[in-house]
Design a protein that fits this description.
The protein is an all-alpha fold and 97 residues long. It is built from four helices and no strands.
């Protein structure tokens, strides 16, 4: 776990993608689960994981890559928003981040 990376991801979710601060806790928890399933922590090394961590991990690593001002990824904005909306819809609220 890297608190700086998580804070940058939360800022990206709130300011660029315009998600509710209460939904950001849920999204970050789902991203942590996807990173752990691929054998990574939610840190700067996870941004290069892509399909090495599964289909949900590809979206999560793309979000981390964009939040850390990376060069981009192969995931489209539509795919990212669809996966984030599924995370928010099907998981309980974890609190404000």
């Amino acid at each position: 776990m890297n608190a700086i990376v998580e804070a940058k991801v939360a800022d990206y979710l709130r300011n660029w993608l315009r998600y509710d601060p209460y939904a950001c806790g849920t999204i970050l928890e789902c991203m942590r689960r996807a990173a752990t399933a691929g054998g990574f922590d939610l840190d700067e090394r996870f941004r290069y994981a892509n399909l090495g961590s599964g289909p949900e991990g590809r979206i999560a690593s793309g979000i981390v890559d964009r939040a850390l001002m990376g060069g981009g990824c192969e995931s489209s904005d539509y795919a990212m928003r669809a996966q984030i909306d599924n995370w928010v819809r099907y998981n309980p609220v974890k609190g404000k981040f």
